[in-house]
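Take one protein record:
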Amino acid sequence: MAVADTQNPLLGEMTCGSLLQHLQLIWDEVGESDEERDKMLLQLEQECLDVYKRKVEQASKMRALLLQSLADSRAELASVLSALGENSFAGISSGTIKEQLEAVAPLLEELGKQKEERIREFADVQLQIDKIREEIAGTLKIGEQIETPVVDKEDLSSKKLGEYQSQYQELQKEKSDRLHKVLDFVSTVHDLCAVLGLDFFSTVTEVHPSLNDSVSVQSKSISNDTLSKLSTMIVELKEDKKLRLQKLQDLAAQLTDLWNLMDTQMEERELFSHITCNISATVDEVTVPGALALDLIEQAEVEVERLDQLKASKMKEIAFKKQTELEDIYARAHIDIDPESAREKILALIDSGNVEPSELLAEMDSQILKAKEEAMSRKEILDKVEKWMSACEEESWLDDYSRDDNRYNSSRGAHLNLKRAEKARILVNKIPALVDTLVAKTRAWEEDRGILFMYDSVPLLAMLEEYTMLRQEREEEKRRQKDQKRIIEQHATDQESVIGSRLTPAARPLGSKKVVGPRTNGGASNGTPSRRLSLNAHQSSGNGAGSMSRDGKRDSNRAAAPANYVAIAKEDAASHASATDQLPATP
């Protein structure tokens, strides 16, 4: 081994060979033995081996660290991908360790950002879900913030996020439905409070403070408890509305009845038109604010009480007014009653205080209703009775007219009497048929009701039978008078033929006297039935000639039929009067 000068600048760069060469030169100069040289060379080799060994160990450790870092990165990548629900990325398993690490690093950074964003999304949707659930449960107070929920970072997949979002949408829909239901309930409560005159805010906030208008719509309570309380409140308010309406309608009916009883002026009634306007309304039809307020009901109660007191003081006047109405109905129906005793009884009942005024008036109204029904059942018969009486009056006039020897004179109005006589004859000819019809209907009426048909306290059938009997007697009397007149005239004619015209003036007065006599008897015969039949009111409207008696004075007790029922003799009239007077005056 050649020895070179170590300090020779031309030696160039230092290497292991040059250094060994330089060491050999030094050993040569020094004269080191071969053993020393070999020993030193072995030592030198051992030291080099140690250095290489350390370097290899360091390199191995570095490689292990890099492999661990790569494994950790791969594991982290796999975890993030698994949490995000993504598949493994290809293309990161080839190349050196450092190349692989360089490929994984940006991927991890990107996926980390996605993971953080996904965590925020999960946190937001879970927070909204928890908030709605607490709102439904009613555990969330106004203005209270709930804690951010803990997100499960092991499952951040899009599928899981979609499930949360679907759940959130369902809860949002349920919240919207509940909110609309709450708002509808609140609106119903508002309308009911308005009608009932209640304070809406104090009423609705009893259910939950959030139902006040100062709270936003989205913050209103939608819990089951709130919905249940609102529903219960609406039921109670509706029941209260129903009861108040019933009470107000009862008061309105009482007011109307009292007004009608006391003939209250329309101006006074108009003051309570806001009460009576709902007298027949249904619960749903009453929507005017304050229509069922308590002060309105109290106002109606005060007025009813005032009118009740006023009615009590005017009860006699009202009762007598109804009694007068009842008497008028019976009078028009020709039903005989005792008005004085009825009025005395009414007065005694009112003074005794043992009967309620309303009950007394109700009883009188019932009597009036029954009287109207009875009068209606008698109307057809009474109409025919009026026609019969009118025909009888015409018959009476016709008899008087027929007896008038001067009826054909050309005096003023004679032609009118002639026309009336023609119509009267037609009407008189219908009397028998009218009487028969009246008898049939009266008997049918009596059989149907089991009582007598009374006309001014006299049985109508008795009146008709008496009239029929008197009419027959009258016809017989007419025939008898005609026969008597014919005999007298024949006797006068025979006398004239015997003694001449000297007897003629004496015969004429006799004939005239015989004609006038029956009329007088007829007037006398009509006196008795007039007392029994009580037909003064109907006879007073007859013709003057038919209502005059023999002495020329107007007879105030004319019968239902005309004065010329029968022209019987005085002794027959007296016997007939005594017979008919035995009949009772009242049924």
Notes: Confidence is low (pLDDT under 50) at residues 1-11, 501-587. The first helix runs from residue 16 to 30. The chain has three domains: 136-238, 244-369, 377-580.
